[in-house]
Amino acid sequence: MDPASGALLAQTATGHSVVLGLMRCARIWLCPVCSATIRHKRAEEITEAVVEWIRRGGTAYLVTLTARHDYRDELADLMDAIQGTRASSPAEIRTARREEAEAQAALADATAQSRATVAAARLAAPKGKKRAAMAQARAESAGAIEEAQTNLAQARETLARTRRQAGAYQRLISGGKWAGDKRDKASDAAAEGIRDRIGYIGMIRSTEVTVGEVNLWHPHIHAIVFVGGRTTGERADTRLAKVFRPSDDSLKEWMDHWRAVWTGHLQRVNPKYRPSDECSIPDCKCDGKGHGVDFRALRTVRDAQTMGEYLAKTQDGKNPAAELARGDLKEARRGNMTPFQMLFRIGDLTGGVAEDDAPGHGSLVWCLARWHEYERATRGRRAIEWTRYLRTVLGLTGGDTEEDDHDMLAADDAASEFRGGAAVTEEGWTAVTKAGLDLAATQAAEGTDANEDPAALTERVREVLALAGVPGEVRQLTSQEVQEAYEAILESQAQRREEAKARRQREADADGQEHDAEETARRARRAIGTQARGRQEVANRRCKESPDNP
Fewer CB in 10 Å around end: N or C, the chain? Predict the structure, then answer.
Protein backbone atom coordinates (compact mmCIF):
# COMPACT_ATOMS: atom_id res chain seq x y z
CA MET A 1 0.00 0.00 0.00
CA ASP A 2 1.17 3.51 -0.81
CA PRO A 3 0.89 5.37 2.55
CA ALA A 4 0.15 8.64 0.73
CA SER A 5 -2.98 7.30 -0.96
CA GLY A 6 -4.11 4.44 1.22
CA ALA A 7 -6.64 2.06 -0.33
CA LEU A 8 -9.03 3.30 -3.02
CA LEU A 9 -12.40 1.56 -3.18
CA ALA A 10 -13.50 2.40 -6.72
CA GLN A 11 -16.81 1.64 -8.39
CA THR A 12 -16.56 0.65 -12.06
CA ALA A 13 -18.95 1.44 -14.90
CA THR A 14 -20.25 -2.15 -14.74
CA GLY A 15 -21.22 -1.81 -11.07
CA HIS A 16 -18.36 -3.88 -9.74
CA SER A 17 -15.80 -2.58 -7.27
CA VAL A 18 -12.02 -2.84 -7.18
CA VAL A 19 -9.49 -2.03 -4.48
CA LEU A 20 -6.67 0.10 -5.87
CA GLY A 21 -3.38 0.92 -4.19
CA LEU A 22 -2.76 -2.45 -2.53
CA MET A 23 0.34 -4.50 -3.15
CA ARG A 24 -0.34 -7.72 -5.06
CA CYS A 25 1.73 -10.76 -4.20
CA ALA A 26 1.58 -12.17 -7.78
CA ARG A 27 2.38 -15.62 -6.37
CA ILE A 28 1.08 -17.80 -9.13
CA TRP A 29 1.84 -21.00 -7.18
CA LEU A 30 0.31 -19.97 -3.84
CA CYS A 31 -2.34 -17.26 -4.17
CA PRO A 32 -5.76 -18.24 -5.58
CA VAL A 33 -6.65 -14.56 -6.14
CA CYS A 34 -3.53 -13.46 -8.05
CA SER A 35 -3.16 -16.84 -9.74
CA ALA A 36 -6.65 -16.64 -11.26
CA THR A 37 -5.97 -13.27 -12.92
CA ILE A 38 -2.45 -14.13 -14.08
CA ARG A 39 -3.37 -17.55 -15.44
CA HIS A 40 -6.45 -16.21 -17.23
CA LYS A 41 -4.31 -13.68 -19.09
CA ARG A 42 -1.55 -16.23 -19.70
CA ALA A 43 -4.12 -18.58 -21.26
CA GLU A 44 -5.28 -15.78 -23.56
CA GLU A 45 -1.76 -14.99 -24.79
CA ILE A 46 -0.90 -18.69 -25.22
CA THR A 47 -4.02 -19.11 -27.37
CA GLU A 48 -3.03 -16.03 -29.37
CA ALA A 49 0.47 -17.46 -29.92
CA VAL A 50 -0.77 -20.86 -31.10
CA VAL A 51 -3.40 -19.34 -33.39
CA GLU A 52 -0.85 -16.96 -34.89
CA TRP A 53 1.61 -19.79 -35.53
CA ILE A 54 -1.00 -22.04 -37.14
CA ARG A 55 -2.24 -19.16 -39.29
CA ARG A 56 1.27 -18.74 -40.61
CA GLY A 57 1.32 -22.39 -41.63
CA GLY A 58 3.30 -23.80 -38.72
CA THR A 59 2.59 -26.85 -36.58
CA ALA A 60 2.38 -27.05 -32.79
CA TYR A 61 2.39 -30.01 -30.43
CA LEU A 62 1.06 -30.29 -26.90
CA VAL A 63 3.66 -32.42 -25.09
CA THR A 64 3.03 -33.85 -21.62
CA LEU A 65 6.04 -34.98 -19.55
CA THR A 66 5.68 -37.11 -16.43
CA ALA A 67 7.82 -39.13 -14.02
CA ARG A 68 7.08 -42.17 -11.88
CA HIS A 69 6.74 -41.53 -8.14
CA ASP A 70 5.42 -42.98 -4.89
CA TYR A 71 4.63 -41.84 -1.35
CA ARG A 72 8.32 -41.87 -0.30
CA ASP A 73 9.38 -39.21 -2.82
CA GLU A 74 9.84 -35.60 -1.73
CA LEU A 75 8.24 -33.01 -4.00
CA ALA A 76 11.44 -30.93 -4.12
CA ASP A 77 13.43 -33.94 -5.36
CA LEU A 78 10.89 -34.68 -8.09
CA MET A 79 10.83 -31.02 -9.17
CA ASP A 80 14.64 -30.95 -9.31
CA ALA A 81 14.63 -34.08 -11.46
CA ILE A 82 12.17 -32.83 -14.07
CA GLN A 83 12.63 -29.05 -13.94
CA GLY A 84 16.19 -28.63 -12.67
CA THR A 85 17.48 -27.22 -9.41
CA ARG A 86 17.15 -23.59 -8.43
CA ALA A 87 20.10 -21.23 -8.21
CA SER A 88 20.81 -20.02 -4.68
CA SER A 89 20.28 -16.43 -3.60
CA PRO A 90 23.13 -13.91 -3.97
CA ALA A 91 23.65 -14.00 -0.19
CA GLU A 92 23.92 -17.81 -0.21
CA ILE A 93 26.35 -17.69 -3.13
CA ARG A 94 28.51 -15.10 -1.33
CA THR A 95 28.59 -17.26 1.79
CA ALA A 96 29.54 -20.37 -0.21
CA ARG A 97 32.31 -18.51 -2.02
CA ARG A 98 33.68 -17.14 1.25
CA GLU A 99 33.65 -20.56 2.88
CA GLU A 100 35.41 -22.07 -0.15
CA ALA A 101 38.10 -19.35 0.00
CA GLU A 102 38.54 -19.86 3.75
CA ALA A 103 38.84 -23.63 3.29
CA GLN A 104 41.43 -23.15 0.54
CA ALA A 105 43.41 -20.76 2.75
CA ALA A 106 43.22 -23.21 5.63
CA LEU A 107 44.63 -25.98 3.42
CA ALA A 108 47.46 -23.69 2.29
CA ASP A 109 48.22 -22.85 5.92
CA ALA A 110 48.14 -26.52 6.96
CA THR A 111 50.48 -27.41 4.07
CA ALA A 112 52.87 -24.57 4.90
CA GLN A 113 52.82 -25.53 8.56
CA SER A 114 53.59 -29.13 7.68
CA ARG A 115 56.55 -28.08 5.56
CA ALA A 116 57.86 -25.85 8.34
CA THR A 117 57.48 -28.68 10.87
CA VAL A 118 59.30 -31.12 8.60
CA ALA A 119 62.11 -28.60 7.99
CA ALA A 120 62.44 -27.94 11.73
CA ALA A 121 62.55 -31.68 12.44
CA ARG A 122 65.33 -32.15 9.89
CA LEU A 123 67.42 -29.40 11.42
CA ALA A 124 66.88 -30.62 14.97
CA ALA A 125 67.62 -34.30 14.27
CA PRO A 126 71.17 -35.63 14.54
CA LYS A 127 73.00 -37.10 11.60
CA GLY A 128 71.68 -40.46 10.56
CA LYS A 129 68.20 -39.78 11.95
CA LYS A 130 67.11 -36.83 9.85
CA ARG A 131 64.98 -38.88 7.40
CA ALA A 132 63.19 -40.66 10.20
CA ALA A 133 62.50 -37.38 11.98
CA MET A 134 61.17 -35.82 8.79
CA ALA A 135 58.92 -38.83 8.12
CA GLN A 136 57.53 -38.67 11.64
CA ALA A 137 56.86 -34.92 11.29
CA ARG A 138 55.02 -35.53 8.00
CA ALA A 139 52.93 -38.26 9.62
CA GLU A 140 52.02 -35.98 12.52
CA SER A 141 50.95 -33.24 10.08
CA ALA A 142 49.02 -35.56 7.77
CA GLY A 143 45.86 -35.47 9.90
CA ALA A 144 45.58 -31.67 9.74
CA ILE A 145 46.19 -31.64 5.98
CA GLU A 146 43.63 -34.40 5.38
CA GLU A 147 41.04 -32.54 7.47
CA ALA A 148 41.70 -29.32 5.53
CA GLN A 149 41.39 -31.19 2.22
CA THR A 150 38.07 -32.69 3.33
CA ASN A 151 36.75 -29.27 4.37
CA LEU A 152 37.80 -27.78 1.02
CA ALA A 153 36.09 -30.59 -0.91
CA GLN A 154 32.88 -30.04 1.08
CA ALA A 155 33.04 -26.25 0.55
CA ARG A 156 33.50 -26.72 -3.19
CA GLU A 157 30.57 -29.13 -3.29
CA THR A 158 28.42 -26.58 -1.45
CA LEU A 159 29.47 -23.86 -3.91
CA ALA A 160 28.66 -26.13 -6.85
CA ARG A 161 25.15 -26.68 -5.47
CA THR A 162 24.47 -22.93 -5.55
CA ARG A 163 24.55 -23.06 -9.34
CA ARG A 164 21.51 -24.30 -11.22
CA GLN A 165 21.70 -27.93 -12.32
CA ALA A 166 19.80 -29.03 -15.43
CA GLY A 167 16.75 -31.27 -15.12
CA ALA A 168 15.21 -33.66 -17.63
CA TYR A 169 13.39 -30.74 -19.30
CA GLN A 170 16.62 -28.86 -20.04
CA ARG A 171 18.23 -32.05 -21.37
CA LEU A 172 15.54 -32.26 -24.06
CA ILE A 173 16.82 -29.11 -25.76
CA SER A 174 20.57 -29.59 -25.36
CA GLY A 175 23.23 -31.92 -26.71
CA GLY A 176 24.77 -32.47 -30.10
CA LYS A 177 22.12 -34.82 -31.43
CA TRP A 178 19.44 -32.21 -30.78
CA ALA A 179 21.33 -29.02 -31.71
CA GLY A 180 23.73 -30.52 -34.25
CA ASP A 181 27.49 -30.27 -34.49
CA LYS A 182 28.71 -27.97 -37.27
CA ARG A 183 32.21 -29.43 -36.91
CA ASP A 184 31.00 -32.84 -38.07
CA LYS A 185 31.77 -32.66 -41.80
CA ALA A 186 31.20 -36.38 -42.38
CA SER A 187 27.44 -36.29 -41.79
CA ASP A 188 25.01 -33.60 -42.89
CA ALA A 189 22.40 -34.98 -40.48
CA ALA A 190 24.77 -34.77 -37.51
CA ALA A 191 25.81 -31.25 -38.45
CA GLU A 192 22.21 -30.09 -38.81
CA GLY A 193 20.65 -31.71 -35.74
CA ILE A 194 17.06 -32.71 -34.97
CA ARG A 195 16.18 -29.13 -34.01
CA ASP A 196 16.83 -27.85 -37.52
CA ARG A 197 15.18 -30.81 -39.24
CA ILE A 198 11.85 -30.25 -37.47
CA GLY A 199 12.16 -26.45 -37.59
CA TYR A 200 11.94 -25.93 -33.82
CA ILE A 201 11.46 -22.24 -32.95
CA GLY A 202 10.59 -22.55 -29.26
CA MET A 203 8.03 -23.70 -26.71
CA ILE A 204 5.83 -22.55 -23.86
CA ARG A 205 6.26 -24.65 -20.72
CA SER A 206 3.96 -24.98 -17.71
CA THR A 207 4.72 -27.04 -14.60
CA GLU A 208 1.82 -28.39 -12.56
CA VAL A 209 1.53 -30.34 -9.33
CA THR A 210 -1.14 -32.61 -7.88
CA VAL A 211 -1.13 -34.62 -4.65
CA GLY A 212 -2.76 -37.98 -4.00
CA GLU A 213 -3.64 -39.77 -0.80
CA VAL A 214 -1.63 -42.87 -1.72
CA ASN A 215 1.30 -41.90 -3.97
CA LEU A 216 1.40 -38.24 -2.89
CA TRP A 217 3.14 -35.81 -5.27
CA HIS A 218 2.75 -35.85 -9.03
CA PRO A 219 4.57 -32.92 -10.68
CA HIS A 220 4.36 -32.86 -14.47
CA ILE A 221 5.10 -30.55 -17.37
CA HIS A 222 2.84 -29.45 -20.23
CA ALA A 223 4.59 -27.79 -23.17
CA ILE A 224 3.31 -26.41 -26.45
CA VAL A 225 6.17 -26.89 -28.93
CA PHE A 226 6.29 -24.79 -32.11
CA VAL A 227 7.87 -26.57 -35.11
CA GLY A 228 8.09 -26.05 -38.86
CA GLY A 229 9.94 -22.73 -38.97
CA ARG A 230 13.24 -21.20 -40.01
CA THR A 231 14.54 -18.01 -38.42
CA THR A 232 17.19 -15.43 -39.22
CA GLY A 233 18.97 -12.96 -36.96
CA GLU A 234 19.91 -13.41 -33.33
CA ARG A 235 18.45 -12.56 -29.94
CA ALA A 236 16.06 -9.58 -30.11
CA ASP A 237 16.53 -9.38 -33.89
CA THR A 238 15.33 -12.94 -34.48
CA ARG A 239 12.80 -13.05 -37.34
CA LEU A 240 10.81 -15.76 -39.06
CA ALA A 241 12.22 -16.52 -42.51
CA LYS A 242 10.31 -19.61 -43.61
CA VAL A 243 7.47 -21.95 -42.62
CA PHE A 244 7.38 -25.58 -43.73
CA ARG A 245 5.86 -28.94 -42.85
CA PRO A 246 8.42 -31.24 -41.14
CA SER A 247 8.67 -34.71 -42.62
CA ASP A 248 7.11 -37.64 -40.79
CA ASP A 249 10.55 -39.21 -40.41
CA SER A 250 11.94 -36.06 -38.77
CA LEU A 251 8.98 -35.83 -36.41
CA LYS A 252 9.34 -39.48 -35.42
CA GLU A 253 13.07 -39.00 -34.86
CA TRP A 254 12.30 -36.01 -32.61
CA MET A 255 9.68 -37.86 -30.57
CA ASP A 256 11.86 -40.93 -30.13
CA HIS A 257 14.80 -38.73 -29.11
CA TRP A 258 12.84 -36.80 -26.49
CA ARG A 259 11.41 -39.99 -25.03
CA ALA A 260 14.88 -41.52 -24.78
CA VAL A 261 16.44 -38.38 -23.27
CA TRP A 262 13.61 -37.84 -20.77
CA THR A 263 13.64 -41.45 -19.62
CA GLY A 264 17.44 -41.65 -19.56
CA HIS A 265 17.90 -38.55 -17.42
CA LEU A 266 15.29 -39.61 -14.87
CA GLN A 267 16.89 -43.06 -14.76
CA ARG A 268 20.28 -41.50 -13.94
CA VAL A 269 18.87 -39.17 -11.29
CA ASN A 270 16.91 -41.92 -9.57
CA PRO A 271 15.94 -45.28 -11.14
CA LYS A 272 12.60 -44.99 -9.30
CA TYR A 273 11.67 -41.95 -11.41
CA ARG A 274 11.94 -43.82 -14.71
CA PRO A 275 8.49 -43.69 -16.38
CA SER A 276 6.68 -46.93 -17.01
CA ASP A 277 7.05 -48.58 -20.40
CA GLU A 278 3.26 -48.87 -20.47
CA CYS A 279 1.45 -45.68 -21.46
CA SER A 280 -1.19 -44.71 -18.90
CA ILE A 281 -3.24 -42.51 -21.25
CA PRO A 282 -6.48 -44.16 -22.42
CA ASP A 283 -6.75 -44.84 -26.17
CA CYS A 284 -3.22 -43.48 -26.74
CA LYS A 285 -1.66 -44.52 -30.06
CA CYS A 286 1.98 -44.37 -28.91
CA ASP A 287 2.22 -48.20 -29.24
CA GLY A 288 3.61 -48.58 -25.75
CA LYS A 289 6.37 -46.02 -26.36
CA GLY A 290 4.95 -43.31 -24.11
CA HIS A 291 7.71 -43.49 -21.52
CA GLY A 292 6.30 -40.45 -19.74
CA VAL A 293 6.24 -38.29 -22.92
CA ASP A 294 2.97 -37.83 -24.81
CA PHE A 295 2.54 -35.82 -28.04
CA ARG A 296 -0.67 -34.26 -29.37
CA ALA A 297 -0.58 -32.40 -32.71
CA LEU A 298 -2.31 -28.98 -33.08
CA ARG A 299 -2.61 -28.18 -36.78
CA THR A 300 -5.55 -25.99 -37.84
CA VAL A 301 -6.81 -22.51 -37.00
CA ARG A 302 -10.31 -23.92 -36.82
CA ASP A 303 -9.06 -26.19 -34.05
CA ALA A 304 -8.09 -23.03 -32.16
CA GLN A 305 -11.36 -21.17 -32.60
CA THR A 306 -14.14 -23.61 -31.81
CA MET A 307 -14.78 -25.27 -28.48
CA GLY A 308 -15.53 -28.67 -29.93
CA GLU A 309 -12.25 -28.78 -31.85
CA TYR A 310 -10.29 -26.20 -29.87
CA LEU A 311 -6.66 -26.47 -30.92
CA ALA A 312 -7.01 -30.24 -31.41
CA LYS A 313 -8.46 -31.40 -28.12
CA THR A 314 -6.26 -32.91 -25.43
CA GLN A 315 -7.17 -36.28 -24.00
CA ASP A 316 -9.62 -34.52 -21.64
CA GLY A 317 -11.24 -32.42 -24.37
CA LYS A 318 -9.77 -29.22 -22.90
CA ASN A 319 -8.29 -26.16 -24.54
CA PRO A 320 -4.51 -26.76 -24.62
CA ALA A 321 -3.93 -23.11 -23.68
CA ALA A 322 -6.01 -23.66 -20.55
CA GLU A 323 -4.26 -27.01 -20.06
CA LEU A 324 -1.03 -25.04 -19.83
CA ALA A 325 -2.11 -21.97 -17.92
CA ARG A 326 -5.29 -22.50 -15.91
CA GLY A 327 -3.97 -24.63 -13.08
CA ASP A 328 -6.28 -22.67 -10.78
CA LEU A 329 -9.38 -24.13 -12.50
CA LYS A 330 -8.31 -27.75 -12.74
CA GLU A 331 -9.71 -30.59 -10.74
CA ALA A 332 -7.24 -33.41 -10.38
CA ARG A 333 -8.19 -36.87 -11.53
CA ARG A 334 -8.17 -40.29 -9.86
CA GLY A 335 -8.62 -39.00 -6.34
CA ASN A 336 -5.78 -36.46 -6.51
CA MET A 337 -6.05 -32.84 -5.39
CA THR A 338 -4.60 -29.73 -6.96
CA PRO A 339 -2.79 -27.48 -4.47
CA PHE A 340 -5.68 -25.01 -4.39
CA GLN A 341 -8.17 -27.82 -3.77
CA MET A 342 -5.98 -28.81 -0.84
CA LEU A 343 -5.89 -25.18 0.34
CA PHE A 344 -9.68 -24.93 0.17
CA ARG A 345 -9.97 -28.16 2.15
CA ILE A 346 -7.68 -26.64 4.79
CA GLY A 347 -10.03 -23.66 4.88
CA ASP A 348 -13.06 -25.94 5.32
CA LEU A 349 -11.42 -27.99 8.08
CA THR A 350 -10.21 -24.94 10.00
CA GLY A 351 -13.72 -23.50 9.61
CA GLY A 352 -15.26 -26.48 11.41
CA VAL A 353 -16.42 -28.60 8.47
CA ALA A 354 -16.20 -32.33 9.22
CA GLU A 355 -13.50 -34.27 7.32
CA ASP A 356 -16.10 -36.48 5.60
CA ASP A 357 -18.08 -33.43 4.42
CA ALA A 358 -15.17 -31.36 3.08
CA PRO A 359 -14.14 -31.97 -0.57
CA GLY A 360 -10.80 -33.68 -1.01
CA HIS A 361 -9.00 -36.03 1.32
CA GLY A 362 -6.62 -36.06 4.28
CA SER A 363 -6.71 -34.71 7.81
CA LEU A 364 -6.00 -31.08 8.62
CA VAL A 365 -2.52 -31.97 9.93
CA TRP A 366 -1.77 -33.99 6.77
CA CYS A 367 -2.99 -31.24 4.43
CA LEU A 368 -1.02 -28.55 6.26
CA ALA A 369 2.16 -30.63 6.10
CA ARG A 370 1.69 -31.20 2.36
CA TRP A 371 0.93 -27.50 1.74
CA HIS A 372 4.08 -26.40 3.58
CA GLU A 373 6.12 -28.88 1.56
CA TYR A 374 4.53 -27.51 -1.62
CA GLU A 375 5.41 -23.95 -0.62
CA ARG A 376 9.07 -24.86 -0.07
CA ALA A 377 9.39 -26.92 -3.26
CA THR A 378 7.92 -24.25 -5.58
CA ARG A 379 9.78 -21.27 -4.09
CA GLY A 380 11.79 -19.49 -6.76
CA ARG A 381 10.47 -21.64 -9.63
CA ARG A 382 8.72 -20.48 -12.79
CA ALA A 383 5.22 -21.85 -13.30
CA ILE A 384 4.85 -20.73 -16.94
CA GLU A 385 7.85 -19.94 -19.13
CA TRP A 386 8.34 -19.04 -22.81
CA THR A 387 11.44 -19.79 -24.82
CA ARG A 388 13.44 -16.60 -25.08
CA TYR A 389 12.62 -14.53 -28.19
CA LEU A 390 9.65 -16.78 -29.15
CA ARG A 391 7.40 -13.77 -28.67
CA THR A 392 9.66 -11.78 -31.01
CA VAL A 393 9.37 -14.43 -33.73
CA LEU A 394 5.57 -14.48 -33.42
CA GLY A 395 5.31 -10.69 -33.31
CA LEU A 396 3.89 -10.66 -29.77
CA THR A 397 4.78 -8.38 -26.86
CA GLY A 398 5.00 -8.97 -23.14
CA GLY A 399 7.06 -11.28 -20.97
CA ASP A 400 6.77 -14.04 -18.38
CA THR A 401 8.82 -12.72 -15.45
CA GLU A 402 7.44 -11.92 -12.01
CA GLU A 403 7.45 -8.23 -12.96
CA ASP A 404 5.28 -9.06 -15.98
CA ASP A 405 2.87 -10.88 -13.67
CA HIS A 406 2.62 -7.72 -11.54
CA ASP A 407 2.00 -5.68 -14.69
CA MET A 408 -0.84 -8.02 -15.65
CA LEU A 409 -2.49 -7.45 -12.28
CA ALA A 410 -2.10 -3.68 -12.59
CA ALA A 411 -3.42 -3.74 -16.17
CA ASP A 412 -6.51 -5.59 -14.97
CA ASP A 413 -7.35 -2.58 -12.76
CA ALA A 414 -6.31 0.01 -15.35
CA ALA A 415 -8.75 -1.47 -17.86
CA SER A 416 -11.67 -0.38 -15.68
CA GLU A 417 -13.65 2.84 -16.11
CA PHE A 418 -14.11 4.36 -12.67
CA ARG A 419 -17.36 6.08 -11.68
CA GLY A 420 -16.26 7.22 -8.24
CA GLY A 421 -15.25 5.79 -4.91
CA ALA A 422 -13.89 6.25 -1.42
CA ALA A 423 -10.33 6.61 -0.12
CA VAL A 424 -9.50 4.71 3.07
CA THR A 425 -6.35 5.75 4.93
CA GLU A 426 -3.53 3.32 5.62
CA GLU A 427 -4.50 3.19 9.30
CA GLY A 428 -8.14 2.61 8.39
CA TRP A 429 -7.45 -0.17 5.88
CA THR A 430 -5.07 -1.89 8.31
CA ALA A 431 -7.85 -1.95 10.91
CA VAL A 432 -10.32 -3.27 8.34
CA THR A 433 -8.06 -6.16 7.29
CA LYS A 434 -7.21 -7.04 10.91
CA ALA A 435 -10.94 -7.31 11.56
CA GLY A 436 -11.41 -9.47 8.45
CA LEU A 437 -13.74 -6.90 6.89
CA ASP A 438 -11.86 -6.15 3.67
CA LEU A 439 -14.29 -8.20 1.57
CA ALA A 440 -17.25 -6.46 3.23
CA ALA A 441 -15.70 -3.05 2.47
CA THR A 442 -15.18 -4.04 -1.16
CA GLN A 443 -18.76 -5.24 -1.47
CA ALA A 444 -19.99 -1.99 0.09
CA ALA A 445 -18.52 -0.07 -2.86
CA GLU A 446 -20.45 -2.12 -5.43
CA GLY A 447 -23.39 -0.61 -7.29
CA THR A 448 -24.18 2.03 -9.91
CA ASP A 449 -24.73 5.07 -7.69
CA ALA A 450 -21.22 6.58 -7.56
CA ASN A 451 -22.06 9.31 -10.08
CA GLU A 452 -25.62 10.13 -8.94
CA ASP A 453 -25.17 9.73 -5.17
CA PRO A 454 -21.43 9.47 -4.29
CA ALA A 455 -22.16 10.14 -0.64
CA ALA A 456 -24.18 6.90 -0.42
CA LEU A 457 -21.20 4.81 -1.48
CA THR A 458 -18.95 6.55 1.04
CA GLU A 459 -21.53 6.07 3.80
CA ARG A 460 -21.74 2.32 3.12
CA VAL A 461 -17.94 2.04 3.35
CA ARG A 462 -17.94 4.13 6.54
CA GLU A 463 -20.40 1.72 8.14
CA VAL A 464 -17.95 -1.14 7.54
CA LEU A 465 -15.09 0.93 8.95
CA ALA A 466 -17.21 1.66 12.03
CA LEU A 467 -17.33 -2.08 12.70
CA ALA A 468 -13.52 -1.98 12.70
CA GLY A 469 -13.52 1.03 15.03
CA VAL A 470 -12.23 3.58 12.49
CA PRO A 471 -15.28 5.29 10.90
CA GLY A 472 -13.44 8.57 10.30
CA GLU A 473 -10.65 7.09 8.14
CA VAL A 474 -12.51 7.48 4.81
CA ARG A 475 -13.26 10.31 2.39
CA GLN A 476 -15.42 10.64 -0.71
CA LEU A 477 -13.89 10.69 -4.23
CA THR A 478 -15.32 11.70 -7.59
CA SER A 479 -14.52 9.67 -10.71
CA GLN A 480 -11.90 12.26 -11.71
CA GLU A 481 -10.31 12.09 -8.26
CA VAL A 482 -10.19 8.29 -8.38
CA GLN A 483 -8.44 8.40 -11.76
CA GLU A 484 -5.92 11.00 -10.59
CA ALA A 485 -5.20 9.11 -7.37
CA TYR A 486 -4.72 5.85 -9.27
CA GLU A 487 -2.33 7.48 -11.73
CA ALA A 488 -0.32 8.82 -8.79
CA ILE A 489 -0.19 5.29 -7.34
CA LEU A 490 1.08 3.85 -10.62
CA GLU A 491 3.73 6.56 -10.87
CA SER A 492 4.87 5.85 -7.32
CA GLN A 493 5.01 2.12 -8.02
CA ALA A 494 7.07 2.70 -11.16
CA GLN A 495 9.51 4.84 -9.20
CA ARG A 496 9.87 2.19 -6.48
CA ARG A 497 10.42 -0.46 -9.14
CA GLU A 498 13.23 1.57 -10.71
CA GLU A 499 14.79 2.07 -7.30
CA ALA A 500 14.57 -1.66 -6.60
CA LYS A 501 16.08 -2.43 -10.00
CA ALA A 502 18.99 -0.07 -9.33
CA ARG A 503 19.48 -1.63 -5.90
CA ARG A 504 19.58 -5.14 -7.37
CA GLN A 505 22.11 -3.95 -9.96
CA ARG A 506 24.30 -2.47 -7.23
CA GLU A 507 24.11 -5.74 -5.29
CA ALA A 508 25.00 -7.69 -8.44
CA ASP A 509 27.94 -5.37 -9.10
CA ALA A 510 29.08 -5.76 -5.51
CA ASP A 511 28.83 -9.54 -5.83
CA GLY A 512 30.91 -9.39 -8.99
CA GLN A 513 33.55 -7.18 -7.37
CA GLU A 514 33.67 -9.45 -4.33
CA HIS A 515 34.06 -12.46 -6.58
CA ASP A 516 36.86 -10.71 -8.52
CA ALA A 517 38.61 -9.81 -5.25
CA GLU A 518 38.30 -13.40 -4.04
CA GLU A 519 39.68 -14.66 -7.34
CA THR A 520 42.62 -12.21 -7.16
CA ALA A 521 43.37 -13.31 -3.59
CA ARG A 522 43.11 -16.95 -4.64
CA ARG A 523 45.59 -16.41 -7.46
CA ALA A 524 47.93 -14.56 -5.09
CA ARG A 525 47.81 -17.46 -2.65
CA ARG A 526 48.54 -19.91 -5.46
CA ALA A 527 51.47 -17.75 -6.56
CA ILE A 528 52.80 -17.58 -3.01
CA GLY A 529 52.37 -21.32 -2.68
CA THR A 530 54.22 -21.87 -5.96
CA GLN A 531 57.08 -19.66 -4.80
CA ALA A 532 57.21 -21.44 -1.45
CA ARG A 533 57.32 -24.82 -3.16
CA GLY A 534 60.09 -23.53 -5.42
CA ARG A 535 62.12 -22.40 -2.43
CA GLN A 536 61.48 -25.72 -0.71
CA GLU A 537 62.64 -27.64 -3.78
CA VAL A 538 65.84 -25.58 -3.90
CA ALA A 539 66.41 -26.24 -0.20
CA ASN A 540 65.79 -29.97 -0.68
CA ARG A 541 68.20 -30.10 -3.61
CA ARG A 542 70.88 -28.29 -1.63
CA CYS A 543 70.23 -30.62 1.28
CA LYS A 544 70.75 -33.67 -0.94
CA GLU A 545 73.91 -32.16 -2.39
CA SER A 546 75.31 -31.27 1.05
CA PRO A 547 78.22 -33.44 2.24
CA ASP A 548 76.54 -33.54 5.67
CA ASN A 549 73.46 -35.28 4.22
CA PRO A 550 73.37 -38.90 5.48
Answer: C
